[in-house]
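User: Hi! I'm working on a homework problem where we have to compare a predicted structure to a textbook description. Could you give me the structure for the chain below?
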Amino acid sequence: MGCGFQESAYQSAFAVECRFQRIPFEREVKYEIQYRNETLDCCYRADFVCFGQVIVKLKVVEMLTDKHRSQIINYLKVSGLKRGVLMNFANERLEYERIVLDYSGS
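Assistant: Happy to help. Predicted structure tokens:
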């Protein structure tokens, strides 16, 4: 598609591409947030969860920052999943980062 579109356009295009590539996915997956054994009245909504295992977060920003990385890390923590991909469509070339959480404590 190229750069210059809003995030919602890339989200729609990503869904089309997943269907075309036969990648199983869910969109806008809701994750409740727990604090002191209580469910908060807010939640996270992951843009996509592919293969039931990988959270995909799409952005349209000048540059990916630690704030964006922290966001997907928090999605992984509340979901219990280990792998995520942060994708930025704002520039001429797609920028992406793989995020892997290690729950083993090592």
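For your comparison, note the following. Residues 7-100 form a domain with the Lambda Exonuclease; Chain A fold (CATH 3.90.320.10). The mean pLDDT is 93. Good luck with the assignment!
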